[in-house]
Amino acid sequence: MAKQEKSAALFWTLFKSTFILSAFTFGGGYVIVPLMQKKFVEDLKWIEEDEMLDLVALGQSTPGAIAVNTSILIGYRMAGIAGALVTVFGTVFPPLIIITLISYFYMNFRENPFVDALMIGMQAGVAAVIVNVVFNMVDSVVKQKDIVNILLLVAAFIASFFFDVHVVIIILLAGLIGFINLTYHEKKGAL
């Protein structure tokens, strides 16, 4: 009985957390991801920061929305397939409801100046959150004090920003280099 209650509480917390984050976050996956990190790493202390970065990287590298992919991975990490289903529903329902309501009333407020001002204000907030995510991820990589990871971070930025290299190529090369670097460090530690 206690295990069922714990499972029900875990599922409810997963659903409630992803539902609230998804309902009150505007700007897409790159905005919701740091809020997921705050909720599951800092507040609930269910996941370590390094593991959360790994889950975000996996969520970003798989097809689909990063927020949905990351929530699936968090749910799966915490409660298996059932947890993944709970978190995906928690993440998808709020936008579905909001978009349905917006599409129903779209013609009425399409040209409303207050709605237009609200959207411009949200864009500024989204930009600030994205900058915060970038600084937190860079800080996390630099704290590891692994020169290969730092150089990889800089090279990925340069390749994407200045040379417009496709993100899939960057992810594949970064994954390969990261794997080689990890294998090297494990062999070096074993000696």
Automatic annotation (TrEMBL):
InterPro entries: CHR_Transporter, Chromate_transpt. GO terms for molecular function: chromate transmembrane transporter activity. It is found in: Cell membrane. It comes from Trichococcus palustris. It is a multi-pass membrane protein. This is Chromate transporter. Its main location: membrane. It comes from the Bacteria.
